[in-house]
Amino acid sequence: MTEVLQGECRLFLTYRGISLPLTLLAPLEPEQIANRNTYIRGYFDAQDRLIGLQKIVYGETELEHRYRYDERGVLRSAAIIDAEGETAELLFDANGERCG
């Protein structure tokens, strides 16, 4: 998890969802994370789509998601990277449904 995510970074308290992309909840201001052990960094593109997130726990990235959309804004792939750097790549069809 050394690659820097692109896009506008916004901070959140948590997320929800079992389908991707996850939904980020409870926006935080930068000064609100100073004494917080866990928070989420969400990265958004010019169309305000979530293109990546990092779950930060005690200053370390515990989980990272990277999303790719097609020209219509449909989710086509998601890379999920765990704390050890293991990556799971998920693919989605033209309707945004998971393949395989």
Strand arrangement in the largest pleated sheet: 2-1-3-4-5-6-7
What sequence of helices (H) and strands (E) makes up the elements? EEEEEEE
Approximate shape: globular
**Percentage of residues assigned to helices:** under 10%
Distance between the termini: 26 Å
Q: Tell me the quaternary state.
A: single chain
Structural class: mainly beta
Secondary structure tally, helices: 0
Written account of the structure:
- This protein has 100 residues and is mainly β.
- It has one domain (8-91).
- Helix content is 0%, strand content 53%.
- The chain contains no helices and seven strands.
- A seven-stranded antiparallel sheet has the order 2-1-3-4-5-6-7, with no helix packed on it.
- A hairpin with a 4-residue loop joins strand 6 (75-82) and strand 7.
- The chain starts with 7 loop residues before the first strand and ends in a 9-residue tail after the last strand.
- The mean pLDDT is 94.
Task: Please give the structural blueprint.
Layout: E1 8-16, E2 23-28, E3 38-44, E4 50-57, E5 60-69, E6 75-82, E7 87-91
Antiparallel strand pairs: 1-2, 1-3, 3-4, 4-5, 5-6, 6-7
